[in-house]
Amino acid sequence: MQLLSATRSLNSQPLPFLSFSHSISLPLPLPFLPNPSKSPHFPSLQIHCIDAAQPFDYESHLKTRYIQSTSLKIGILGFGNFGQFLSKTFLRHHHTLLAHSRTNYSDVANQLGVSFFSDPNDLFEQHPDVVLLSTSILSTEALLQQLPFQRLRRNTLFVDVLSVKEFPRNLFLKYLPPDFDILCTHPMFGPESGKDSWAGLPFVYDKVRIGEEESRVRRCDKFLDIFAKEGCRMVEMSCMEHDRYAAGSQFVTHTMGRVLEKFGVESSPINTKGYETLLNLVENTKGDSFDLYYGLFMYNQNALEQLERLDMAFESIRKELFGRLHQVYRKQLFGDQEQEEMDEKFSQKLLGNGSLIQPPLDNVRQEGS
Ligand code: NAP
């Protein structure tokens, strides 16, 4: 133990009391006194200045002060699947967490070390620095309309983690008091894909409205720091851009995962790497609620177009397959003669008007080879 300011006087006998320069004597329980018979150089301790900061004390003070300066009081609204998942990491970063949800999650919250409030009034009266919205996309507007904003501090930071971005951005601008700061975010991972680590996983954010005061800028940075320190790939982009990209990637991924789940993919003893990828896709998406998926569809204006494109792509593949099958079938019925006549007709047309003509679906001869 590093009682560095203590002086040592070697070989003195065990003392029943330690004496201090301020003439304070403290009884020291015998088990804590070193045994002089085993340690010939055992020191007696004299602390000269009991009220001076000791190094071990100083370090812990510094640590506490550092944690206080970087920690936030975060109120989570919507303590379901994703809210709980996020809170576990927030707690590791020494933030104070409060939560509210329509379901009573007191027990889960207790186990995690989160204070749970059944009434948002009570949570807001705790004056969190940050209010984080982690409710379903579908319930967001109804919830925002009921929140008692007047109980919060005037410049609270509102953050959302919804999987669509333009929709909550517009709702925040519509319903939040003008003094509130707004940060729209999308951690592009979930309890399944981010269960081991967040390192390298994309975190999209848009500082929609952050006041210029240093404290407000710092508060927003502290929040973003949680994800940066976890190693997320921090991507700053507008909500509109996010939705455009996400419809083409995230919505399509969820759709394929759901289609394959309905289709019923199952592991087999001869899984290929590609098939394993499909199984993982189903695993990653099946834990998400249908509300979430429906929200991706309903509240991203680009999603419908992507669904239609998927439909068309599927139809086109089907046509290609059936087209070839049809050719093989015709060949079996009519032999090579018909094919030769058709080839001749096409080459005449091409020579006739000079324009390129798409040949009929691949040549039947290939099929036979
Ligand atoms: P979710 O089904 O999208 O949302 C469930 C949450 O919404 C629960 O906290 C639930 O509260 C609350 N909720 C649902 N209907 C409500 C209503 N009518 N009134 C009040 N609260 C209501 O599933 P989630 O996975 O937890 O996602 C939460 C948010 O995070 C969503 O906006 C989602 O887009 C986003 N997100 C999710 C993931 C993910 O991988 N899961 C990833 C990134 C972002 P109760 O539990 O109390 O009923």
Automatic annotation (TrEMBL):
Keywords assigned by UniProt, alphabetized: Oxidoreductase
Q: Which GO terms describe its biological process?
A: tyrosine biosynthetic process
What highest taxon heads this organism's lineage? Eukaryota
Q: Where is the Prephenate/arogenate dehydrogenase domain?
A: 72-350
What Gene Ontology terms describe what this protein does at the molecular function level?
arogenate dehydrogenase (NADP+) activity; NAD+ binding; prephenate dehydrogenase (NAD+) activity; prephenate dehydrogenase (NADP+) activity
Q: What's one Pfam family the UniProt record gives for this protein? A: PDH_N
Query: For the region Disordered, what residue ranges are annotated?
Result: 350-369
Protein name (database record)? Prephenate dehydrogenase
Q: Which organism is it from?
A: Corchorus olitorius
